Amino acid sequence: QVQLVESGGGLVQAGGSLRLSCAASGRTFSSYAMGWFRQAPGKEREFVAAVSRSGDNRAYADSVKGRFTISRDNAKNTVYLQMNSLKPEDTAVYYCAAVRRSRWSLDYRPNEYDYWGQGTQVTVSS
User: Which residues contact 75 (CB under 8 A, 6 or more apart)?
Assistant: First the structure.
């Protein structure tokens, strides 16, 4: 079992920055690839970014590439999402999720993830 708790969401103006954190319980955090997803009202949950167990392999949705950075600290059982140059279309509830994968693997598919946090709201005003 892995419990995930997100934090760091809030209201920011367009062009601003936020840093989301996701703290994981348990001693097996480094066994999981981690992902960030988001869901806006009336839309399906979509992939934002993912990082492998080792932290060396990362992937991003085209819509956030160059603006968002995913990272992890296995010693602190935490994964981060640094969001810069925010746009109103980034407004959504952001979720972190965990999935067991081999060292270098990651996954884009929300249905593959085993554990989810409760989400944190990010609102970007124009």
Answer: none
Task: Determine the distance from the C-alpha atom of residue 101 to the mean position of all C-alpha atoms in its chain, rounded to a whole number.
Answer: 16
- Can you read off the two tokens belonging to residue 3? 């419990």
| CA atoms of 123 and 120, how far apart (whole Å) | 10
Summarize pLDDT for 70-118 with one digit per residue, the tens.
999 999 999 999 999 999 999 999 999 999 988 889 999 999 999 999 9
List the helix and strand counts (H, then E) for the chain. Answer: 0, 11
Q: Where are the beta strands (DSSP E) in 25-106?
A: 32-39, 46-51, 58-60, 68-73, 78-83, 92-100
